[in-house]
Amino acid sequence: MDLKHSHSVKLNDGRCMPVLGFGTYATEDTPKSKVAEATKVAIDVGFRHIDAAYFYQNEEEVGQAIREKIADGTVKREDIFYTTKLWITFLRPELVRPALERSLKKLGLDYVDLFLIHNPLALKPGDELLPKDANGKYIFDNVDLRDTWAALEKCKDAGLTRSIGVSNFNHKQLELILNKPGLKYKPVCNQVECHPYLNQSKLLAFCKSKDIVLVAYSALASSRDPKWTDPNSPYLLEEPVLKAIAKKHGRSPGQVALRFQLQRGVAVLAKSFTEKRIKENFQVFDFELTPEDMKAIEGLNRNFRYTKFEFAIDHPYYPFSEEY
User: Fold this and answer.
1) CATH no. for residue 17?
2) CA 237/CA 282 separation, integer angstroms
3) pTM of the shown model
4) Is 36 helix (H, G, I), strand (E, B) or coil?
5) Is residue 69 classed as helix, strand or coil in its secondary structure?
6) What letter would DSSP give residue 86?
7) Using 50, 70 and 90 to split pLDDT, how confident is the model at 1?
8) Cβ-based neighbours of 257, under 8 Å, separated by 6 or more
9) Is 56 an annotated catalytic residue?
10) What's the gap between Cα 237 and its chain centre?
11) How far apart are CA 214 and CA 93, in angstroms?
12) 7 annotated as ligand-binding
């Protein structure tokens, strides 16, 4: 699978996914209108893969931005690859399709291109995104992920989504799905945190061996949402090794971090709400890192996670107690 020169990758269900995606997660203090504007800019710049989620609570705005760009003739619906995710309070099989239908209604679209299980950590069903008990502890739910997966397969068969996959799964959780009796469709991808400080080389090798695309979120580690990330975490884009390689190529450290992923066969999401940065993040197909550059960046790995989901560390499906 050569993502180096190609702008898209063939998934194991025969569909194609653009290897560079635009992320739409925003902190609570970001106005939703800003997300809509940024999405339109991203489409104008050339992004065709839009990564979103019910949990981000801005699908109306993102959907409106996409529809406006279709209406003004910039793109057709089939040019856009739209990903949404099943939130963890909807992992019970009977809640899966209604959850996707709710996203579609918010978006004003007939189908999504990719529907992912956002996280293996089931929480109590209901309207609250992060339900807690009287003591402020999150209320876990007990769901067999294989049953959730079977419900996603039905959404694909119903034409509500073209492809299905997972996010934040470790290799054992992927195997649980892959070895499921009566499996109809394999996950096409596993979207996980991945950047030079957490390069996921073992999980990447596992996914490649199963023809599952690894998709990197937090690839620039620049979204420092205090809700999920320790404010004392290192700044990836200040990393001297990345800065030196960037200088050598006349690029930014962010472009180098994105290019690194493409050259190792990882699809990558880039998120920014400023026009200059959105444009910059798309300029990653016209230069190439040398084998020495790649080796130097691989040497930065320290298995450091910006997002640890510490609220669910006791959950039976907590994904990060495994090495990969």
Assistant:
1) 3.20.20.100
2) 17
3) 0.96
4) helix
5) helix
6) E
7) very low
8) 195, 196, 219, 220, 236, 237, 242, 297
9) yes
10) 20
11) 25
12) no
Burial class (CB in 10 A: 0-12, 13-18, 19+), 324: middle
Can you tell me the distance from the alpha carbon of 105 to that of 153, in angstroms, rounded to the nearest whole number?
20
**β-sheet bridge partners, residue 213:** 189
Instruction: Name residue 40's amino acid.
Output: K
Decide: 36 and 30 in contact? Cβ < 8 Å: no
Tell me, what amino acid is at 273?
F
Condensed to tens digits (0 to 9), the pLDDT of residues 52-84 reads 999 999 999 999 999 999 999 999 999 999 999
Q: Which residues of 8-18 are buried (b: 16+ CB within 10 A; e: fewer)?
A: bbebbeeeebb
Whole domain around residue 158: which residue ranges? 8-311
Task: Give the count of domains, the chain.
Answer: 1
Residue 162 near residue 139, CB atoms below 8 Å: no
Active-site residue (options: 25, 54, 56, 82): 56
* In a domain? residue 1: no
